[in-house]
Design a protein that fits this description.
Blueprint: E1 20-40, E2 43-51, E3 59-62, E4 65-70, E5 73-74, E6 84-88, E7 93-108
Parallel strand pairs: 5-7
Antiparallel strand pairs: 1-2, 1-6, 1-7, 3-4, 4-6
Length: 109
Amino acid sequence: MLTGWKTDWTGIPNTDKRAKPSKYKFVKNAKVLVVKRASIRSAIISNGVFYLNNIDNPFSHYKEKTRASVECMWFGRKPKVTWMNLTVYDGEWEIKNKYTGDVIVNISR
């Protein structure tokens, strides 16, 4: 879905509590993750929609937290190895199939 991304993180903050969704992309009939509350790199995301990177198995666990792989950048940069792993909380998310609308594709200031 996303193209033309950079992976050079020189000068990019590793965490930022004040970061928020800053760019969106329109998708049609996509499998998405809808969150009421999620977090990434100390930023809290409320009421957002993300395009799932791996639609067959988007979830993983790390340090007893559930994460979802979503196609989203951090301050205009893609993580070097995988797409963004958004931390999700029980009861605060749902998957929607065939979603049409805007999805978050960048989180920054």
